[in-house]
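User: Could you go from structure to sequence for me? I need the amino acid at each position, not a summary. Structure tokens:
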């Protein structure tokens, strides 16, 4: 079935409005990375709630300086407030404390990369609580992951998978871009090569597969070559622990 971008965009906006009205909520806080996903989420919430109820945060942490510039393009275009909260010193302090435990080199590469989105998550929730108090209505933290990322587990557990409301989780990368085009997201942000801005690699370089191939695989694994299909399958299976928390249940008496 062909993707009806106008219909789907309006349905997402109504989904947000209905949820906020039903639960008497106030606004939303989200990290603005300078990439397409957070830009599209910001655009959707601005349409749904009004720009005055959207709070964006740039959260640099040894990250690309151009990301902050691109984030400002988004806030300027859609008219919501954007705050910069630099986490570099917080990260450095953590690393200094780690040095009291021992000396580590290559062993901490993944730990370092994953610490950054976890610090960002804590900061987003701090500001959500702050603006809840300031405005006497609850502010939620919005997630920005799309369906392709989620399928292969490309997120940090306890980091960017923690949020209160998600509007892209059932949309592929191609569908997110179509909504971005419909909502006039600035082109240099919308078509920017996807990257976490933290590891000096693009998303596709880290994953070893292209988002387009993930999208095709989700439709029918036969649409991609065998080698690519196996890579995607391995990623999907290896990251199942990110979705389910095994919980012991005692037997009822």
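Assistant: Here is the amino acid at each position, in order:
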């Amino acid at each position: 079935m062909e993707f009806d971008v106008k219909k789907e965009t309006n349905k997402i906006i109504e989904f947000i409005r209905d949820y906020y009205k039903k639960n008497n909520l106030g606004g939303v806080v989200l990290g603005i990375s300078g990439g397409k996903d957070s830009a599209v989420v910001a655009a959707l919430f601005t349409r749904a709630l009004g720009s005055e109820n959207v709070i964006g945060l740039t959260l640099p942490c040894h990250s690309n300086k151009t990301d902050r510039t691109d984030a400002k393009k988004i806030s300027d275009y859609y008219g919501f407030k954007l705050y910069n909260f630099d986490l570099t010193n917080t990260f450095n302090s953590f690393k200094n404390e780690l040095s009291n435990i021992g000396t580590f080199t290559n062993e901490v590469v993944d730990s370092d990369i994953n610490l950054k989105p976890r610090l960002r998550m804590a900061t987003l929730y701090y500001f959500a609580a702050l603006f809840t108090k300031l405005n006497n209505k609850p502010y939620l933290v919005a997630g920005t992951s799309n369906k392709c990322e989620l399928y292969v587990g490309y997120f940090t557990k306890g980091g960017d998978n923690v949020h209160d409301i998600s509007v892209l989780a059932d949309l592929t990368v191609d569908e997110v871009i179509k909504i971005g085009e419909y909502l006039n997201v600035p082109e240099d942000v919308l078509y920017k090569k996807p990257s976490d801005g933290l590891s000096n690699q693009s998303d596709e370089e880290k994953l070893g597969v292209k988002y387009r191939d993930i999208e095709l695989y989700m439709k029918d694994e036969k649409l991609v070559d065998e080698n690519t299909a196996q890579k995607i399958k391995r990623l999907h299976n290896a990251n199942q622990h990110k979705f389910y928390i095994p919980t012991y249940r005692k037997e009822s008496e």
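One structural detail worth keeping in mind: The chain has one domain: 5-195.
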